[in-house]
Amino acid sequence: MSDTLRHGLFHQSLCRPTILEHQSKTNSQGLFIKALFHASPSKQGTVQLSKALIPTTYRKNSLKVEKTNIIKGRRMVSVVPRAVLTTDPAFELSRKCILDGNSELQFGISAPTQGKGFQINIQVTNSSDSLVLHWGGIPYGKKSWVLPSCRPNGTKLYKNRALRSPFLKSGSDSFLKIEITDPQIEAIEFLIFDEARNKWFKDNGDNFRVQLVRSDKQSSVVSVPEELVQLQAYMRWERKGKQLYTPEQEKEEYEAARAELLDEIVRGASVEKIRARLAKSDDKYETKETNVPESKRKIPDDLIQIQAFIRWEKAGKPNYSPDEQLKEFEEARQELLAELDKGTSIDEIRKKIVKGDIQTKVSKQLGKKKYFSSERIKRKETDFMHLLNKFAPKSVKEKVSVPPEHPTAVEIFLNAKEKQDGGSILNKSVFKIGDKELQVIVTKPSGRTKIYLATDLRGPLTLHWALSRKAGEWVEPPRSSMPQGSVSLDKACETQFTESYSGEPPCQVQSLDIEIGDENFVGMPFVLLSSGNWIKNNGSDFYIDFGVGSKKVKKVAGDGKGTAKALLDKIAAMESEAQKSFMHRFNIASDLLEWAKDAKELGLAGIFVWMRFMATRQLIWNKNYNVKPREISKAQDRLTDLLQNVYISYPQYREILRMILSTVGRGGEGDVGQRIRDEILLIQRNNDCKGGMMEEWHQKLHNNTSPDDVVICQALIDYIKNDFNVKAYWKTLNSNGITKERLLSYDRGIHSEPNFRRDQKDGLLRDLEHYRRTLKAVHSGADLESAITKCLGYRDEGQDFMVGVQINPVPGLPSGFPELLRFVLDHVEDKNVEPLLEGLLEAREQLRPLLLKSRDRLKDLLFLDIALDSMVRTATERGYEELNNAEPDKLMYFISLVLENLALSSDNNEDLVYCLKGWNHALRMSKRRDDHWALFAKSVLDRTRLALSSKAELYHRVLQPSAEYLGLLLGVDQWAVEIFTEEIIRAGSAASLSQLLSRLDPVLRKTANLGSWQIISPVETAGYVVVVDELLSVQNKSYGQPTILIARSVKGEEEIPDGTVAVLTPDMPDVLSHVSVRARNSKVCFATCFDPNILSDLQAKKGKLLSLKPTSADVVYSEVKDSELLMTSSTSMQEDGSSPSLTLVRKQFCGRYAISSEEFTSEMVGAKSRNIAYLKGKVPAWLGIPTSVALPFGVFEKVLSDSSNKAVADTLQFLKKRLSQGEFSALGEIRRAVLQLVAPLQLVRELKSKMQSSRMPWPGDEGEQRWDQAWMAIKKVWSSKWNERAYFSTRKVNLDHDYLCMAVLVQEIISADYAFVIHTSNPSSGDSSEIYAEVVKGLGETLVGAYPGRALSFVCKKSDLNSPKLLGYPSKPIGLFIRRSIIFRSDSNGEDLEGYAGAGLYDSVPMDEEEEVVLDYSSDSLITDGNFRHSILSSIARAGTTIEELYRSPQDIEGVVRDGKIYVVQTRPQM
User: Fold this and answer.
1) Across the chain, which distance is largest between two alpha carbons, in Å?
2) Quick one: which H or E segment has residue 1197?
3) Residue partners of 740: CB distance under 8 A and separation at least 6
């Protein structure tokens, strides 16, 4: 047996049941068992183990033995309740376990103060008043209860089978003492019963048991060697067939073995007799092993370990389960045995496998007790759909019960000044003075700075002012800048305000205008003097920044649009009160939270902005007010409790509520806060450091503690650890934004530097590290260590006058969750961050279900989740170096982890979740070496970037207006306001994710052979570089010289400005989008640049003349001289610069309101309708053509002339006149007027007749409302004649807009699975032998409209239609879907006019609204099923060639796919 055990147990972690591969499991009771086997060198024939006492576990045909050692660094084994405590008179033994919620059971045994026997002390914390102990004694050798003779007061007999003793109540706890003097009783068993709740408390379903050993037996019991207990346990295990034991069963078996031996001793057996019996049994087991081959015993353990290590490395260092580890070691042994059987000697095996530093590696693993198991958790399989969160808050206007606000007299006065001046505002500030206000604006027309001050203060008012060349400086203004009547003083000047009246009815305003020449002044400090009283800005000088060298403040910053304005005004009015202390600020925030909640998203955004300004020290923390730390802690606790309640009640706002919580400390009841005050006194006393810096800090802490104190404490620790180097102290302070000036600015300033003695080092380090935890418990809600400690529970004993603190564990945590958190803490500083990221994400995943419903101590879990979220970002940034030379798979895996973290923190995360699924699909494609993996990963990368961009835009829309308005009211530094949203984004996972995407992008482009460019319109040209933010912002501009536009944003529906010869962008418009078609038709070079370095280089050439030479996958550019411009651009620009001469023929009403497709002629409908009619009956049966009817040309004009629409006709005539005079705002009014048209009855009858005869559904059959929807859609098509893009397009080519006529093509919508656009001649390369097509999921509007992202694209040679070549996977996040319906398509006489690309200018309108669906490509057959994709793309290509052959010219075709069948909905000549 000994050899079998020795070989089965030499690996220390083969079978340990763990959640963490590297770490043994500890349960909440904190109980640990001793090893089952100890070495016994004195006895021949007993089990012999190595000196290290290798732990193992009962597993299959092996036994795990654990030796617990309380020395730091040794591992401990978990035990589930059902422990049996054996007494020892030298010690008072105890046990703890959770009964219910925060209620904890503790019991222990000791010798009574008098007499013989034992005393059992039982305590239940946080208990009810109605607990009783239901109990009895267990005599030696029996299992049934007996009733002890000694019983506590009040004990009652229960059915003559048990005793019931009441607990005594003391405070929140209950106590009971029992004395056992009966010599025959070896143990007691009990249950606890709550009479009021009728609830039993058991020990894992069994009775609680306390083992007793009589004093007269004690010496013999104590002398039972542990190895005998271990052997007895092993024999029990053998007898039961070597079962697979759980940890609970292991514990029970171990205690049962001990009990058996104790019984033998009680019955009179000696230890030697027991030893002899066990030795005999040992010999029996040895006999069983005699037929084991001798060779098995001869293989040294170190070789087996090395062989197992080699196998583990070859397998990719997987995370083996305990059973898999055991199997691996046995496999290693078998491999070496096979070598021995071949005749290889041990020495030869050693030479063969012991190479290089492998022994060092193995020794290192064994020394660390990691044992060929990577230090990482094993993540649970998860379906990412469970992360889906569709609580998408809609931006709403503030709905609060406040009267509508009108401009104040001061605002009216300054608005007039602003208009009068005409210059841009450099600064605008609003100062609250009680219930009055002072507003100041700064402008700079004609190079001279003007300052306008206005206030509604009454009575004589004097401005005491100066100028500053640097902030804070007072310099006497030059005489030329002093208004008339000013009095010059030393370094200042005084000027009287003048009275005037403003507003309706007129209200008094006191104002003052100051004009300053170009004197290099940067600002103006001032105070006010009113009736002998000085007025300051919350105790400080007022100061106006002239905005020199900074970005100009937008005029709209102060109007409060897009904010909960009334709430922000209230916050600003309360700021002077909030500045007194954190207690005041948090209590004010609590009072305003109900208001904020009613104002919905914008209200909560206002609270967040305010708290963020506070957290970043833009607002004063404490001002002349002494407040106790426990009061601050209590105020924090109140605020976080309220935020927790809103979090539960309003799930759509959880993301912004998390953001608010991240700016506020955790807080707590008074005990935690009070310790801040008490503990610093003890630190000073215990370490003899009562003067100097420590006393100044002590005074500051007593006066008003703040988050700065956490940093100061850390700085002191770093100072001591760095051998009392004061530079380390300042480095920590400065890196956290605390300067010497800030230390001095506290109400109780810190003037001194630390100066400790070396003999104080150990005590100060111990006490300060402990004190840091106390400070973090109040101030650092998002600190990871503090958050974990709070959730797992801790206890700090009181000392002298300092109160004690006990925080119980959060109840109901998932099984294994505490070990997971300990794993995170153990690895939080690891250089290899991947295992840490996995641990952090697994912890967040397990925590998520607990955050979705109301529960006890929810906010502790929220702070923990916020801390885990923050650590993901920190760890990711630390891991950048690790990724420098990483393979694409590793980069994609990191991206998926960070994206998962972002999804866990986001409210409306559907797009993020589908991106996450996309990355996992890309990883699977890569691992199976799919040829298209990089192409697909690139599409997911592009989509992820779009998702990040959408998130940034959402933050900017929701937060930035509040930051600008509140920042203006509170006088926050302009730079802090300008970058507010940017800093919020940068502080989260989105910024880390963006950086990872930038690292992967060039790798994917190279792997997929995508190059740095996508050429949309390959035109060689030259022009001057102009950089713009959006193409949309300049689409109506006309450039006077050839211009190359570098545009950050191109959506797809824009016009290309006159004079533009090239558009280069990092954006990704579809190759077949409107702007792409425009570029090709207009011979404008158009390309997407994927390389940010190339783009930056192009932007740096702003104003320079460049030559562009596009190839199939690149754009070669170079600077040229002006003299070369004409020659290099002659191919792309007309020399005379004139526009083409185009004319339209006015179409007349044909006398019919509706016609069928058989009646379509060029006089009645446009080419769009005629082409569809032409295809009917000419294409093969596999190609579907929808049935169509039309409202011909002239119907709109006929309806307008109807007597029922005279008012509309008159309005249109008036508006068109305004339009002809250049009032382009009339375009929108015209469109709205058209929508007022009434349908003549004859039109309704004729359209109904034609649709029904063509077997199309008539909307009116479903009710009058459905016809109303159809009629509105028809009017929207007509009104699109006056959309801005179409109108200006006709002006550019000198078309008479009045001659443009609009027919309406009516078709039944085919509910599409996919939609496509085909160009039968490749537009990017000009190759007429090749088809180019794009495909989207759902309706085609996402393809031809300005929907972000790319479509699936492919090319196909016409000579080989069965071999489509995929160019790119789709990245569009949105698909459009619709019920069975009718679509009304625009069909104007200008859309296909030769030389004028009118296609796509006018609207096609479905009768019903399309539903926007966020797309999941990872479950789309077109993406995941290669055979299905090949079939669909080949069918689309065949449709393209079929239609081109009919027309005998290249075609631009639109169509859909439904259940695998191809339908063509329109075709036109390819431009």
Assistant:
1) 123
2) helix 1195-1201
3) none
**Residues forming beta bridges with residue 500, ordered by sequence position:** 509
Is it the case that residue 292 has pLDDT exceeding 90? Answer: no
Annotated catalytic residues are 1074
User: Between β-strands 1183-1184 and 1461-1469, what pairing exists: parallel, antiparallel or unpaired?
Assistant: parallel
Q: Which of 171-180, 420-429, 1241-1250 has the weakest average pLDDT? A: 420-429
The Cα–Cα gap between 355 and 303 comes to 12
Query: Which residues make Cβ contacts (< 8 Å) with residue 509, sequence separation at least 6?
Result: 409, 410, 413, 454, 455, 456, 499, 500, 501, 502
The one-character DSSP state at 506 is T
Partners of residue 323 on adjacent β-strands: none
Beta strands in 1145-1292 (DSSP E): 1155-1156, 1183-1184, 1188-1191
Which one, of 48, 199, 53, 208, lies nearest residue 135 by Cα?
A: 208
pLDDT in tens, 451-484: 999 998 888 999 999 998 887 789 999 988 999 9
3-state SS, residue 1411: strand
Structure token digits, residue 134: 């239901």
CA–CA gap between residue 627 and residue 431 (Å, rounded): 27
Residue 208 backbone phi and psi in degrees, to 5: -70, 145
Give, to the nearest 10 degrees, the angle between helix 654-663 and helix 629-649: 170
DSSP state at residue 328: H
Q: CA 853, CA 873: separation in Å to the nearest integer?
A: 26
Enumerate helices (H) and strands (E) in the chain, giving the number of each: 45, 46
Record the tokens describing residue 39, joined without a space.
Answer: 């070495």
Place of tokens 């058209």: 1234
Judge whether 868 and 840 are in contact, CB under 8 Å: yes
Please name the residues in contact with 289: beta carbons below 8 A apart, sequence gap of 6 or more.
1, 3, 4
Whether residue 621 contacts residue 639, with contact meaning beta carbons closer than 8 Å, is answered with: no
Burial code (b: 16+ CB inside 10 Å, e: under 16) for 1367-1405 equals bbbbbbbbbbebeebbbbbbbbbbbbbeebbbbbbbbbb
Q: Using an 8 Å Cβ cutoff, are 16 and 64 in contact?
A: yes
Length of the chain as a residue count: 1471
The tokens describing 878, both together, are 């630390």
Classify 799 as helix, strand or coil.
Answer: strand
Our CA dihedral for 558, 564, 570, 573, rounded to 10 degrees, sits at -20
Dig out the tokens for 425 from the structure.
């505002």
Q: Contact, 513 vs 459, CB < 8 A?
A: no
Q: How confident is the model at residue 198 (pLDDT cuts 50, 70, 90)?
A: confident
Q: pLDDT by residue (tens digit) across 850-886?
A: 999 888 889 999 999 999 998 898 889 888 887 888 8
Q: Are the C-beta atoms of residues 1406 and 1309 closer than 8 Å to each other?
A: yes
Q: 445 CB contacts (<8 Å, ≥6 apart)?
A: 421, 422, 423
User: What DSSP state is assigned to residue 736?
Assistant: T
Residues 6+ apart with CB under 8 A from 1230: 1212, 1215, 1216, 1219, 1279, 1282
- Residue 1221: CB atoms within 10 A of its CB come to 9
Q: Which residues have CB under 8 Å from 433's CB, separation 6+?
A: 455, 457, 528, 535
Indicate the pLDDT class of residue 487, thresholds 50, 70 and 90: very high
User: Tokens 């004197």 correspond to what residue?
Assistant: 519
Residues 132-178 have pLDDT tens digits of 999 998 887 677 888 888 889 889 888 778 899 999 888 788 889 88
Contact between 525 and 546 (Cβ < 8 Å): no
List, in sequence order, the alpha helices (H) in 751-906.
761-779, 784-792, 817-826, 834-847, 858-878, 888-904
Number of C-alpha atoms within 13 angstroms, CB side, residue 568? 29
- Token pair, residue 661, equals 């919580």
The CB-side HSE value for 438 (13 A sphere, CA atoms) comes to 25
Q: Measuring CA to CA, which residue among 569, 602, 575, 601 is closest to residue 588?
A: 575
